[in-house]
Amino acid sequence: MERTLPAALEPFRNRITATSMPFVRVTPAPQRPTQLWESKVGGHPYLPKDFPIPSAPDGRELFFLAQINFSDVPPLPGFPESGLLGFFIYDDDLYGMNFEEGTTPDHFRVLFFPEVTHDTAALRHDFPTDRQADELPHHPERSFPLQFERAEEVAPVSDYRFWEAFGQDFFQQFGTEAWSVLEEYDKAVSAQGHKLGGYAYFTQDDPRSADDPMLLLFQLDSDQPMDLMWGDTGVGHFFIREADLLKRDFTKVWFDWDGM
Question: Phi, psi (5° rounding) for residue 96?
Fold first, then answer.
């Protein structure tokens, strides 16, 4: 389907289309009890029976945020086709994000299990039921299963790769209409929502740079039906270097979120 662009950008349609890349759209289904191995936000995570619940240096256990079972996910270049990826965060006002060292997993964790078993006797069930959370963006006791759909998107202005492709002064050529053309394009081409891969959406600025390009691994947006809110209508990101993704090394993932 051909994308609608602002009239001023029609001469650039081919250049914009050339930035197209695949991603997987992630859609939460209504809340319900879930199996330990299901793709989901919230609920109980997939952990082998003797695998410790991830914890922070202060000894406090992290909270389960979400997990992706790649057997549910349409193929996406570079991404696993099997295995399960789990995301855990900390209960503080930054949700475990580290401004100085975003890839230091002291207060968040990304775990990858290449083999997934449905043998419940081999999995942990002894999760605490009385933990109180004060600052989390979500309700960890509520479980929302996830559905997946492969799609294509072009570069939005929120992602630094747009400016790499078109230049920092691209919209200045439209003179007094520069800001309105940018806003029209931003509305027509947005990277908002939950996703695997593709372009990233930010309420502020993209913290990545061309000097250390990191791919979007998982984006979890604020979501009213799930009562999930990153700060003030923000969005959470997990980024990874391409080489690490191809090696299935998720120990150096960068966790970042921003808000209005």
Answer: 95, 0
Q: What is the pLDDT of residues 167-208, one digit of tens each?
A: 999 999 999 999 999 999 999 999 999 999 999 999 999 999
Residue 103 lies in a domain: yes
Any domain includes 171 = yes
Per-residue pLDDT reduced to its tens digit, 73-114 = 999 999 999 999 999 999 999 999 998 888 999 999 999 999
- Residue 2, domain member (yes or no): no
Number of domains in the chain: 1
Query: Which tokens is 175 given?
Result: 């003179």
| CATH number reported for the structural domain that contains residue 161 in this entry | 2.30.320.10
